[in-house]
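The material for today's practical consists of a large collection of protein records. Backbone structure tokens are a discrete shorthand for how the chain folds in space. An example says more than a description, so a record of this kind follows:
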Amino acid sequence: MILLIETISRRYLCRQNDVDAVGFPSTADRDDRGRPIMRSQLGPLLDPSDPPASGRLHALTIHLRRRVVELLVVRIDLLAEPPSVVPLAPFLTACLQLPWVTGAALLDEQPVLMLDLRRLATDLALGLRLKHAEAAL
């Protein structure tokens, strides 16, 4: 199953099995096992021109060994008919600063990137960030 994720100005795809829960962000600082919860808006994290969202946000929750990462977005939909995702060519993958994009698909005749949210959450938990993301935080 494929999820369509929307930020203020962008759309992304991810595999549903990369995400442990979909819903509203928690209000606690720690989960029920005592792990700290890290929250980050996905839009500004990936694209500095994508403004931070306000109001009611949705969370893509990923449970890691020592912490929980909540990626906040404006909207999440489960696609009834998964699009045909084309993996990135190895030479493109090698050029990426961080390997969070795994492929692309066409939705409504527009290209949409497929993200590896589990890898992204792991990198965030390890403190790895894009340079423009650090400036936005």
